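Re: weekly structure request thread

Next one in the queue (365 aa):
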Amino acid sequence: MSKRDPTGNDAHWMREAAAEAGRGLGRTAPNPAVGCVIVRDGREVGRGYHRRAGRAHAEVEALTAAGKRAFGATAYVTLEPCCRHGRTPPCTQGLLEAGIARVVVGCLDPNPAVSGRGVALLRRRGVATETGVEKELCRILIRGFAEHVRFGRPWVHLKLAASLDGRIASRSGESKWISSSASRRLVHGLRARSEAILVGVGTVLADDPRLTCRLRGGANPVRVVLDRRLRTPPRCRVVEGPGRSLIVCAPSASPRARGRLEAAGAEVLAMDTRGRRGWLRLLAELGRRDVMELLIEGGATVAAAAVRATVVNRATIFYNPRFIGGDGVPMLESLGVKRPAEAIRLRTESWSSVGSDLVWSGELE
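Done, posted below.
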């Protein structure tokens, strides 16, 4: 634990608060992941994070840890303190009652109905308040919450693992393991912060994946399978594994197959997911189930469908330095692009190396 920053650097303490917030990712829905660090005379006196909906907010946890030392201190909070009564009292009230002298906020609440109100209340009550410290870092922490609270749907992250020539499997369909073990650990980190993970039935039939988070303490996301004809085996690991599974089928799918899956413990949802309207319908349904971040790990068919529907917010591609060749399975099926000028463009956010892999990440323009 960081105890003292001799420079008195606000950015340093906000990064500490962000690290605290990260401990709650994937567990707090429908609330955002928030972290708080309380500093007095250059020393940390308390820290906390929001653990899950219905539990104490980050500010309350940090104030409890600080006790009387919070009086006259500075609170670093990744997200604007709430000023409304919900399951718990407003955090602005707790900060005022503790005698906090200064509040530094990473980013404002993305909900247009409440954005800025918490900060305004603190300022009216004489608390020195600053905003926008490490703003982009703090926004990344709440990207799913922001999408959910504004549009009622999850933020969508597409993950692909491919050879350097863009193949996700050999001509026989075998895909284990294209990416390195270091990359796979990183993917489990992506799963840990996602409330749901989505694949197509082809991936289930080919690989029988678990789709769980295998990081210590990581939460298992809801496993969503797009399966129009209900070909998912009731004894597969997606159905039998820990946590919940949701099989999304066409309205015309076999009632008998549906009954077998439901008897095995899966939830079956009949819905037309074709095209952009179908995807938006599915995302809205997941939003109603408090899914704020959706990780798509499906094969070439599902990945291409999501890209064509323009519902992907961010893509991360793990490239392993090997060639599989043109007879391998491409990372995306047809997008219907006739000319290079019609190609779907992406904006590079970062390149990095993880183990033996190159990792590209960016947003769809």
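The first strand starts at residue 35 and ends at 40. Residues 305 and 364 are 14 Å apart (CA to CA).
Next request, please.
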